[in-house]
Structures are given as C-alpha cells and as structure tokens.
C-alpha cells in the first residue's frame, strides 16, 4: 500500500475543530498524519524528535505539549527528551529551551 493510500484513523484535527475549519482538519488528519507521518524513510520516533526540535526552535509551546506526549508514545524516553531540550537550548535560544523544559516537566507530571 502506498503512503497516499494509508489511513491511520487519526482524527485529532476533527476532534479539535469539528466542522469549523474543514480544510485545516483535512490537511492535518489526512495529509500530515495519514501521509507524511507514515512515510517509510524516517521512523515515527525520529519524526517526533525532529518535530520537537522544530517547535522548540520556533517557540511554539502550545503545539509542543502535544508533540512531547506523542514523542513519548513513539518511543522517545523522558531522559532523551530532557537531553534534546538541553541541546536545543544552545542552538534555539535559552528561553526556548527553558520554556520547552517547563512544558516537558508538566507533560511528565500529568501523564
């Protein structure tokens, strides 16, 4: 089955927006999660680390909360996430690293 034909059943966009933003729901659920996240050349674990790095670098803490939890589901350990955020603090800015670490602490404590 090709990547374009896969359906993961992901409905996070639909659960968040319902019919309010049909285009965004479609591209989130069907394209991003059914196609991009299912491509074979990177594992979901690696995609999660890349996504955490990108969101941290951009200071997108609202989305980071979800993706830190998703990274944990995809096999990234808490220690690996802590180390990744420490490393990112030097490249993405100390405030972003500190904010991301606060988000991770909350994710772990509320799991």
TrEMBL record:
Residues 25-105 form the Carboxymuconolactone decarboxylase-like domain. It comes from the Bacteria. InterPro entries: 4CMD/NDH-1_regulator, AhpD-like, CMD-like. GO terms for molecular function: peroxiredoxin activity. It holds the Pfam family CMD. This is Carboxymuconolactone decarboxylase family protein. It comes from Paenarthrobacter nitroguajacolicus.
């Amino acid at each position: 089955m090709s990547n374009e034909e896969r359906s993961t059943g992901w409905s996070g966009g639909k659960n968040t927006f319902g019919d309010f933003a049909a285009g965004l729901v479609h591209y989130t659920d069907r394209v991003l999660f059914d196609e991009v996240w299912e491509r074979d050349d990177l594992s979901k674990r690696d995609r999660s680390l890349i996504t955490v790095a990108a969101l941290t670098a951009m200071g997108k803490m609202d989305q980071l909360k979800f993706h830190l939890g998703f990274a944990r589901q995809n096999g990234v350990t808490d220690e690996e996430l802590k180390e990744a955020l420490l490393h990112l603090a030097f490249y993405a800015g100390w405030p972003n690293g500190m904010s991301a670490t606060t988000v991770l602490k909350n994710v772990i404590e509320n799991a």
